[in-house]
Amino acid sequence: MMKAYRWKLSLPMIAGIVCVVAMFVLLYNETLSSLYMTSFLRFRSTCARRDHVTDMKRKKDEENEEESRVEYDEDICDITEGKWVYNRTIKPQYSDTSCPYLDRQVSCVKNGRPDSGYKFWQWQPRECSLPRFDAKRALRKLRGKRLMFVGDSLQRGQWQSFVCLVESTIPIGEKSMKRGRVHSVFRAKEYNATIEFYWAPFLVESNSDEKIIGDPKQRILKVDTVAKHAKHWLNVDYLAFNTYVWWMSGLKLKSLWGTFANGEEGYEELEAAVAYRLGLKTWANWVDSTIDPNKTRVFFTTMSPTHMRPQEWGNPKGIKCANETKPVKKRAQWGSGSDKRIMKVVTEVIGKMKTHVTMINITQLSEYRVDAHTKVYTETGGKLLTNDQKADPLNHADCIHWCLPGLPDTWNQIFLSNL
């Protein structure tokens, strides 16, 4: 038999083999490393390009989204359909201590209101997103122009809201305010723009225009003329009108029209809706016969609700709006503080006008805001409510006017979107 041949490896041979294997492994690793680094660098470059493209696309999308919000169109989006969403992260754009132009009547925090939640509710329409008020955009829109709010104290509240929303972006030496009993003017000098308020609670003339008559029974309306007021509305670029709450005294309104031999003794008492229709048609006739739509745009703010009967929003133990801290959640809430007859008159009269009038419909969204009124944190007769009066909200809570900052800021978001 043959014997198996056995290799006998000497030490030099073993050392040589180890060196060859090591050299092969080293070369192989370097090749892998080179391939890995090339792939890695290529991957990083691709990722960087993708990240850059993604960032650019995101930025473009944001710009497009912002642009689409700026081009908000109420004909496409029904602003009345939506809900109030609480958002504590977005702070109000001013406060009643930071804005020097607020009346004490609406400065609720300064007047001692302890809760602040009413300032953080945002209106979210069902079909679109309402853009936040952009002060710079508003001022650019108004460059070289006049904006005038015309109406009662609720319209004055919207005017003050608008002024406070823009004034903080204007340097101190570039702005001024001139307050008057009837006509007040805020001026943004750098923009050569004015934001004005003209007091005309009925729009038509009355004996309670300048010296306010507190007793509604003593007020007399001249429902067929606006001449005394309207001369101040000429040469204005943007006119924003409103009139409602002064008509709703619950009484028949003493109304004059035409020439009466007995002067003011010749009035007739008319139902509120009838007198309102006569007065609004007088205003509409003036607009149609006087306004050049190529030079002046006309707006009309619908009625601002009052909240006097808490049982209407499901709080039978409530006292007017006094203890309310949240909006009403019931969809399409509508109380007696918004007269549907008046809304119908506004729709019909404006619908027949030759001049295009943009309606700022704030009624339904404001109906939910039982929490946003000044309540007992206000003044009456030029004096703040006393502690005894605050303790009696049934007789002293103001459920007509609104705290600022607050709900009227939302009205101005809508207004600016239509400006």
Automatic annotation (TrEMBL):
Keyword presence, Transit peptide: no
Keyword line: Membrane, Signal-anchor, Transmembrane, Transmembrane helix
The Trichome birefringence-like C-terminal domain, residue ranges: 130-416
Classification via Pfam families: PC-Esterase, PMR5N
TM segment ranges: 9-28
Keyword Transmembrane helix: yes
Trichome birefringence-like N-terminal domain: residues covered: 77-129
One example GO MF annotation: O-acetyltransferase activity
GO cellular component: Golgi apparatus; membrane
Membrane topology according to the record: Single-pass membrane protein
Compartments reported by the entry: Membrane
Coiled-coil intervals: none
Cited PANTHER family: PROTEIN TRICHOME BIREFRINGENCE-LIKE 3, PROTEIN TRICHOME BIREFRINGENCE-LIKE 9-RELATED
Protein name: Trichome birefringence-like N-terminal domain-containing protein
Species of origin: Saponaria officinalis (Common soapwort)
